[in-house]
Design goal:
homodimer; 5-stranded mixed sheet; 11 helices; 12 strands
């Protein structure tokens, strides 16, 4: 008998549901589309139908331990209510946990999507075994999560880890949150496209301008491909991206001094394009990182940092997520495994 | 019988030692001067002599529970060794805990000075009863501490809470740490004096220029007094200070989402001069703060923030420390009370 849990990852267009065994195998995965216009109860019906199919299918080999949901948005964890989710607008103040628990008769756990992503990477991915870590997800914005002593650290309102709105440029690009110069205005897919449009407008990015005229228009992926082909304006965009992400990570390292920081989300696949500038910034801007990563400092003139902290210190690790889009499914299922 | 502990606060010029009862009374306080040139053992002798006097004096009324030391610098908490302290240069890699424990025969606890300051404010001061809080100490630089579940959160190398080196202006004033634009370059006593000198050099700060010609030369206190008298260039310096501190606090709120943030240290006494700008920046730059502090938002146009987070949320509190220079003594003693 291998017990299992259900993991649900509610993305912008896709709703993915999987049965995951307690030893970390995806037994079966179902993709539904998130029908944005659906009534809240219809969406619950569709999800519960899929979960029931999975449970019937795999109930013979083990017990269902519960179901965990990773949802982008503001969630009242105590009440089990989704306050607001851009992906599922009809769930505004909707009591998701009660609605599903009543229907399925199993324990339901809600959590923010970046936070289940972190749990997944910590259980089976890049941060396997790390009791203290932070995760940044780079997508249309920046999501974040902090894991302390093996558990999600929520803070007072469940909002700990709002890394996307750390100020990078005090008088920089306006953000929807009311601030200027938020990290996610500089290090996200949205930011890449904005910088690409600015480069086109400046008239010195012919390859990017050409790409913009193809269907379906500019995407972050196109700019990444151009950068990898050596296009200088595209490379410049990823250097700006890496600089901003480096400033953000240095700030987080200075505040938290954790063992491990994992960078995930769709845009993390452009790692090769932004990571060199990112690491350069972090070494310069975090004495904690520079001092606890002496191997990378050879040839640098960062003696001051090396002097004040013992060189035998444990290393600070900043690395890529490895589970890709399954991280959320694993993490959501883990939530229900306790 | 009221048991007590010894608290030691090792400042730049003063070494303060107190017997503190478990109910939070200072029974007696001794001031020694930190003789910077003293041999490490001489300093230990002087301190132990004072601690023995206090113990003899108050041993009749209760048991000595131990002695806690708040030390500015890098401390290896596990080994009980001071790696480096600007205030006590002779203690470089000095095994303070063993040296004192051997001599006194009581349990010795070492901790960073900002961190014992936080313990003091959490025990008896502005954060009394708060299980989760952060403290910033504004002095020649910025010190910091994070308290989670009632205990100091150290991070991997004991460096969690290095708030002074969070980047505020990515291409700003160079910092001794190797970075540019660190928070403590803009919101410390040192920063106030730098900005004052710049104002003098710019030729439009006659009152500050006059103050600079008195003995013992420019101090942050002088600029504060001028600001309180309405001198516009001095007020402008504190607005810059408040802006930088506001950016820093907004970043910390966005990362940690704690209940309470306490601002202490000598320069916190200039609160009236910098707090209005500081709060303005925090409201603008942290949606978490703005949304969880609706009372302050009346007349503001921060509806976006208010909409996404429930108005019944617990408030985020940002406030001044109240224990002044005794916070370190209380916190150091508390360390030894367990």
């Amino acid at each position: 008998m291998t017990d299992f849990a259900i993991g649900v990852d509610m993305g912008g267009t896709n709703l993915r549901i999987a049965a995951v065994s307690i030893d970390g195998q995806i037994l079966e995965k179902i993709n539904l589309s998130t029908n944005m216009s659906a009534r809240p109860d219809d969406l619950v019906d569709a999800m519960c139908g899929a979960i029931e199919r999975l449970t019937k299918q795999h109930g013979g080999t083990g017990n269902l331990l519960g179901a965990g949901f990773g949802i982008a948005g503001i969630i009242d964890l105590e009440a089990g209510v989704v306050r607001k989710s851009a992906n599922v607008p009809s769930w505004c103040n909707y009591p998701v946990r009660d609605a599903i628990e009543r229907r399925l008769g199993t324990r339901i756990f809600l959590e923010n999507d970046a936070k289940v992503h972190a749990l997944g990477e910590q259980w089976l991915g890049a941060a396997r075994g790390a009791r203290e870590m932070a995760l940044l997800t780079l997508g249309t914005g920046i999501g974040g999560a902090i894991v302390l002593d093996g558990k999600i650290f929520h803070g007072l309102h469940g909002m700990a880890g709002e890394f996307g709105h750390v100020t990078i440029e005090p008088e920089g690009v306006p953000c929807g949150c009311g601030n200027r110069g938020c990290a996610e205005r500089y290090a996200s897919a949205t930011a890449i496209v904005r910088m690409a449009r600015e480069a086109i407008a400046a008239g010195n990015a012919p390859e990017i301008a050409r790409a913009a005229h193809t269907e379906p228009g500019l995407t972050a992926k196109m700019i990444y491909d151009l950068a990898m082909q050596g296009d200088e304006p595209a490379r410049c965009i990823f250097r700006s991206f890496g600089r901003a992400l480096g400033i953000l990570l240095a700030d987080i390292v200075n505040v938290l001094n954790l063992k491990m920081y994992v960078v995930g989300g769709g845009v993390a696949s452009a790692w090769d394009a932004f990571a060199p500038t990112m690491f350069e910034e972090i070494r310069r801007r975090s004495i904690i990182y520079a001092a606890s990563f002496p191997d990378e400092m050879q040839g640098d003139s960062e003696g001051a940092a090396a002097n004040i902290v013992d060189r035998t210190l444990q290393k600070t690790i900043i690395t890529r997520a490895v589970l890709g889009s399954d991280a959320g499914l694993f993490g959501a299922a883990k939530l229900a495994m306790g």
